[in-house]
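Support request from a user on the community tier.

User writes: "When I paste my structure tokens into the form, the page sometimes reloads and wipes my input. The last time it worked, I copied everything first. Here is what I submitted, just in case something in the input itself triggers the reload:"
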């Protein structure tokens, strides 16, 4: 009986060894890196200092002629509460953020904008993302 148990253990251990030898080379192939498809979050996010309660427009003036970005919210459900506007793909060292509401318009100049670098798919995969957040002032 003991020799039969020893035989079964030896067969089991041999199977585990064969499986390990078959799987190990596949796991160690360093020349075929698989990158995931996480998108590129690069951009500048504008935060509002207080929750919004109606229609508004955020305009990013880059300081370069003709390079202006605008986000408008017509007053629906997405215009109420905490608002963060992402200007995707925008990387500028300085900008003026113009917020227009029914109360008026307010410009907030921002210089020395610092972007954080990240690699959402890992350092060995594209993209290299640059993100920054600035706060805008609201009209009085």
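"...and here is what came back when it finally went through:"
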């Amino acid at each position: 009986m003991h020799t039969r148990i020893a035989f079964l253990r030896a067969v089991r251990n041999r199977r585990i060894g064969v499986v390990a030898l078959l799987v190990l080379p596949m796991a160690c192939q360093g020349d075929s890196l698989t990158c995931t498809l996480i998108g590129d979050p690069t951009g500048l996010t504008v935060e509002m200092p207080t929750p919004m309660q109606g229609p508004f427009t955020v305009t990013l003036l880059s300081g370069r002629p003709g390079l202006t970005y605008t986000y408008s919210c017509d007053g629906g459900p997405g215009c109420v509460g905490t608002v963060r506007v992402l200007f995707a793909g925008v990387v500028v060292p300085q900008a003026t953020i113009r917020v227009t509401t029914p109360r008026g318009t307010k410009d907030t100049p921002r210089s020395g904008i610092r972007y954080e670098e990240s690699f959402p798919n890992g350092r060995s995969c594209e993209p290299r993302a640059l993100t920054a957040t600035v706060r805008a002032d609201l009209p009085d």
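Agent notes: The reload is a front-end session timeout and is unrelated to the input. Residues 2-27 form the longest helix (26 residues). Residues 15-31 have pLDDT under 50 and may be disordered. Escalated to web team.
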